[in-house]
């Protein structure tokens, strides 16, 4: 009470001084600005943001339900990708396909994902996260089930491309889940979310092990489409992201969702009025502008040094063009390289495990690879899928302690070390060990980049930024079998491994060049120049 009276009397004295004076000294202006700032801060103490609300309610039962729903989508994508390892050889035998026709079954899925990752990201940023993953789940489940009924090769190619377009919406679900997690525990729970991908790969390998020898590839395609169908079953009870709603000015809807989160978690929301981060940043900027008008003309040059808040939600520029704004262009381009390197290396290592392990890598004197058995060893694929679990564990322990940048760069460079001996022929046991360790490293980087990427962008362009980056990664997935594995088939193992070394090392360097670290930082609704957002983990 005493402080309020003192502040009130001080403000009255200040207003009288303003009426009695036409000019101010710099000292009196600064004192006046400080008093006004204190007064406004007192008003704003009765408001809170989505981050404040999530920190208050914590990670509880509600977030576990959100995790289960988003995780089912991640399992669906992993199963649809993993089945390509089994369906291709089966169709080559059943339909007498050429090796080029067999590879097209995989390539069209990646091509569809390239289109879908960008398209669904834009839809989710413009019309909401729920609408984004509703459409993706519908396309994936329907096209996946129809693939099992495909009468010929042409129909199968078209339907698998549609499946790829639907799978491109995976980043929408990850961004949606991310926006429900309190900042202090975001890294750990995003690693848990990434574990659903590994669960999907292991589950698909186990299903294929039992289904393919008895029921055939059509039943495998049908079973693999079921997880995406479950997303449609529970869609009606899925909430919209409160952060997205706040950004669009729909704070009453966001408040209702946050109240439901608090009720289910058994916690209470902060007292006050829910506001968006963008509103607070714009208010701070207006306060700075008001203070600047009180300063003498000679001091106005300091205004240029203040960080400018950019409200993307009210911009007429397309969300894709916003990725190339001065504040985002550097992290965007670096992220593209990292996504490309991750996808190229991850899918390449999966293929190399087969190429270098099954004994078919022994080249004859004519420079062509000796042909071995083309049968898929379901047992071996099932066992090697477990190599990803150590990568997830490493991610969970390092992502918050070392930070996103240091975790990724360390594992990229370690991967280079493990692959280097494979530039020359090695004993089978050593080859298996080196590829196993390299896959652990790439699994770690892949896990961390899908956590790091959504944290880079503001809410207004988050799913677009992650979607476009993921699309660039799909290009790496398409090129990998054509370039790197093609070199193995041509008995150019040294060249193939050196290509992997170059891509992986370049990705590690690009990680180090990111202008900021996001570990422990709250998600933003608008962008601020790099100098204002840089936060390195000590």
TrEMBL record:
> Known InterPro entries for this protein?
MFS_dom, MFS_sugar_transport-like, MFS_trans_sf, Sugar_transporter_CS
Would the keyword Endoplasmic reticulum turn up in this protein's UniProt record? no
The alphabetical list of record keywords is: Membrane, Transmembrane, Transmembrane helix, Transport
Compartments, record wording = Membrane
Q: Where are the transmembrane segments?
A: 103-121, 133-151, 157-178, 190-211, 217-238, 333-352, 411-427, 433-453, 465-489, 495-516
Q: Tell me, in one coarse class, where this protein mainly resides.
A: membrane
Its membrane topology:
Multi-pass membrane protein
| A GO cellular component annotation in the UniProt record | membrane
GO MF, one annotated term: transmembrane transporter activity
- Ranges where the Major facilitator superfamily (MFS) profile domain occurs: 66-519
Q: What Pfam families does the record point to?
A: Sugar_tr (PF00083)
Q: Give the record's family classification.
A: Belongs to the major facilitator superfamily. Phosphate:H(+) symporter (TC 2.A.1.9) family.
Protein's UniProt name: Major facilitator superfamily (MFS) profile domain-containing protein
Which species expresses this protein natively? Lactuca saligna (Willowleaf lettuce)
């Amino acid at each position: 009470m005493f402080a309020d009276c003192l502040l009130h009397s001080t403000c009255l004295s200040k207003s009288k001084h303003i009426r009695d004076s036409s000019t101010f000294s710099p000292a009196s202006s600064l004192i006046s600005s400080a008093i006004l700032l204190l007064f406004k801060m007192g008003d704003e103490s009765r408001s809170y943001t989505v981050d404040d609300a999530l920190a208050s309610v914590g990670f509880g039962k509600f977030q576990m339900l959100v995790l289960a729903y988003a995780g089912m989508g991640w399992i669906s994508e992993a199963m649809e990708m993993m089945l390509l390892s089994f369906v291709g050889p089966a169709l080559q035998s059943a339909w007498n396909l050429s090796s080029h026709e067999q590879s097209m079954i995989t390539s069209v899925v990646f091509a569809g994902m390239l289109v879908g990752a960008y398209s669904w990201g834009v839809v989710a940023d413009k019309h909401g996260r729920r609408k984004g993953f509703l459409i993706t789940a519908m396309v994936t489940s329907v096209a996946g089930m129809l693939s099992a009924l495909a009468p010929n090769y042409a129909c199968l190619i078209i339907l698998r491309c549609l499946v790829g377009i639907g799978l491109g919406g995976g980043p929408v679900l990850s961004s949606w889940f991310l926006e429900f997690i309190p900042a202090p525990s975001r890294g750990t729970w995003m690693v848990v979310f990434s574990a659903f991908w590994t669960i999907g790969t292991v589950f698909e390998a186990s299903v294929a092990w039992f289904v393919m020898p008895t029921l055939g590839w059509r039943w495998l395609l049908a079973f693999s489409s079921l997880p995406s169908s479950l997303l449609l079953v529970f869609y009606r009870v899925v909430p919209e992201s409160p952060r997205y709603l706040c950004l669009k000015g729909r704070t009453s809807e966001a408040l209702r969702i946050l109240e439901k989160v608090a009720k289910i978690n058994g916690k209470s929301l902060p007292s006050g009025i829910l506001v968006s981060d963008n509103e607070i940043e714009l208010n701070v900027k207006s306060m700075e502008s008001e203070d600047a008008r009180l300063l003498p003309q000679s001091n106005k040059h300091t205004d240029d040094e203040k960080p400018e808040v950019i409200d993307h939600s009210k911009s007429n520029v397309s969300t894709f063009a916003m990725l190339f704004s001065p504040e985002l262009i550097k992290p965007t381009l670096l992220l593209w390289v990292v996504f490309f390197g991750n996808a190229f290396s991850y899918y390449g290592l999966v293929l190399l495990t087969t190429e270098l392990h099954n004994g078919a890598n022994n080249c004859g004197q004519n420079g062509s690879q000796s042909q071995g058995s083309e049968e898929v060893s379901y047992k071996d694929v099932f066992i090697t899928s477990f190599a990803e679990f150590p990568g997830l564990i490493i991610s969970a322990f390092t992502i918050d302690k070392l930070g996103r940048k240091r975790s990724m760069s360390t594992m990229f460079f370690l991967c280079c070390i493990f692959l280097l001996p494979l530039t020359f022929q090695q004993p089978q046991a050593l080859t298996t060990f080196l590829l196993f360790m390299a896959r652990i490293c790439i699994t770690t980087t892949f896990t961390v980049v899908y956590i790091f990427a959504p944290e880079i962008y503001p809410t207004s362009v988050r799913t677009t930024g992650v979607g476009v980056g993921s699309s660039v990664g799909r290009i790496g997935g398409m090129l990998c079998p054509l370039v790197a594995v093609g070199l193995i088939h041509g008995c150019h193992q040294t060249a193939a491994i050196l290509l992997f070394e170059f891509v992986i090392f370049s990705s590690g360097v690009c990680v180090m060049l990111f202008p900021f670290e996001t570990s422990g930082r709250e998600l933003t609704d608008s962008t601020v120049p790099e100098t204002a957002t840089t936060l390195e983990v000590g």
